[in-house]
Write a structure and sequence with these properties.
The protein is an alpha+beta fold and 455 residues long. The chain is 52% helix and 21% strand. The protein is built from 13 helices and 14 strands. The strands form four sheets. A five-stranded mixed β-sheet has the order 9-11-12-14-13. It has a four-stranded antiparallel β-sheet with strand order 5-4-7-6. The longest helix is centred in the middle third of the chain and has 60 residues, at 197-256. The two termini are 57 Å apart.
């Protein structure tokens, strides 16, 4: 089986490449979709202008009335009666479409058509005079902002859409002479993005889901890697911790089997005492592991009773005098709490104080100084345990309450234990509905603060 340490970088690289590939596909997909949507919007705009042309051509010019009297043709006077011998007719002589509309009317026709197709209604227009096959002959009419927009388009024509719509009737179609409607529109990127809203939202959501899955996968793998390292460290520590008492017991048994010792009751009693103490030591280590398993399952039932915190602290300090002496240490008690009584499980609460003091002794140099203080707040009792030990780094502070975690790694046993003490402390404090926090700096010591509710 390939170790996770070797496989992990490969998996990360493969997942990263896959993620980048998917993002690239998403970006290209949205880009191509935007091009297609732009073309569709421009086609709609062309359709609108063709419809405008049809509406403009559909309006007829006001007819002029003429009299036909023999060989003479003259305009008929308005309001005068026509002689019964005179012939009258009407001829549409006004073939210029621009003469049939005002600027506001043309503007309204174009705006209405664009609005009906849900297109941008920002535009300017002009009607160019007649020319042969689209060659214009001057400007017949134009919207107020036409000149300014054309100048802007001249600087960056890619951002504008120009449409030339010939205003043809049958006569003009035959001669090739016609007026031309010129419409200029800025390309509205915001409207394009809004039209692609659902598609882009779906793409971004899908990409976000993939990125989230990628992050969760990496985090899970890192946790598994960390658990694997912790497990290896725990096995190494447990092997070392159990090996020492087993070796001591083995030596004591061999000594008892010696003929010279068998006849000496004092020596037998001495070696039996060693076996008993080492057995207790192993039982205590096994019990700490079992307690940790029960805490994880929330199966430890607390037997709450009235507990004097000052009494527990003083008793624990007395029991640790030998360990303190080995480090030339001393404990200063500042028990200032007016009300030191809380509801607690006496055994587990005592273990909490013991573990914190024991850690202060283990992780310290010579001339250890510990200050234990208590005080009351409005609804709680606060206990602080501060030392001048070796301190902890930020990374260690963030992980000290994890099960099996120890400040050192690998098969290093300068400090004994399984890394269960502080995780046990945190679990017991939480079980008492209390809070615990730690402050520390490398080389300057550590300070644990616990707060327990009082009713």
């Amino acid at each position: 089986m390939v170790p996770l340490k070797k496989v992990f970088p490969i998996i990360v690289v493969l997942i990263t490449l896959s993620l980048l590939g998917i993002i690239w596909i998403q970006v290209n997909w949205i880009y191509n979709a935007s091009i297609v949507r732009r073309e569709q919007m421009e086609q709609k705009a062309v359709g609108v202008m063709n419809n405008v042309r049809e509406q403009m051509l559909a309006r007829k010019a006001p007819p002029m009335r003429f009299k036909v009297d023999g060989s003479n043709i003259r305009p008929a006077d308005k309001g005068l009666a026509i002689d019964k011998y005179e012939i009258t007719t009407t001829i549409d002589l006004n073939v210029n479409v621009s003469d049939r509309f005002t600027i506001d009317e043309v503007q309204k026709l174009i705006a209405t058509g664009l609005r009906n197709e849900h297109l941008d209604t920002t535009f300017e227009f002009a009607i160019l005079g007649k020319g042969h096959f689209g060659n214009s002959n001057g400007v017949k009419m134009q919207s107020p902002g036409f000149t300014q927009m054309v100048e802007s388009a001249g600087r960056d024509s890619m951002d504008y859409l120009f449409q030339y719509i010939p205003l043809l009737n049958s006569f003009e179609y035959a001669t090739g002479e016609t007026e031309t409607l010129l419409v200029v529109q800025p390309k509205n990127n915001l409207l394009l993005l809004l039209s692609l809203g659902r598609m882009m939202a779906g793409g971004l959501l899908f990409t976000a889901v993939i990125i989230t899955a990628f992050i969760l996968t990496i985090r899970t793998m890192l946790n598994q890697k960390k658990i694997s390292e912790i497990k290896s460290d725990f096995i190494n520590n447990m092997t070392h911790e159990l090996k020492t008492p087993l070796a001591t017991i083995s030596l004591a048994i061999d000594a008892i089997g010696n003929e010279k010792v068998m006849d000496n009751k004092e020596k037998i009693r001495y070696f039996s005492g060693i076996i008993k103490e080492e057995n207790k030591r192993m039982n205590k280590q096994v019990e700490s592991i079992l307690q940790s398993a029960l805490l994880e399952k929330n199966e430890i039932a607390l037997k709450l009773q009235v507990t004097d915190v000052h009494e527990v602290i003083s008793h624990t300090v007395e029991n640790l005098q030998l360990q303190l002496a080995s480090k030339q240490g001393q404990v200063e008690l500042r028990l200032d709490a007016i009300n030191p009584i809380i509801m607690a499980d006496d055994v587990h609460f005592s273990n909490v104080i013991f573990n914190l003091l024991d850690n202060a002794i283990k992780y310290s140099k010579e001339h250890l100084e510990v200050v234990i203080s208590t005080y009351n707040t409005r609804k709680s009792l606060v206990i602080t345990i501060a030392d001048n030990g070796i301190g902890m780094s930020r990374d260690t502070i963030s992980r000290i309450f994890e099960k099996f975690y120890r400040a050192h790694t690998g098969n290093v046993h300068n400090v004994k234990g399984f890394g269960l003490g502080l995780s046990y402390v945190k679990a017991i404090v939480d079980a008492h509905k209390g809070k615990i926090k730690v402050e520390s700096a490398v080389g300057k010591g550590s300070k644990f603060t616990m707060e327990f509710p009082q009713e």
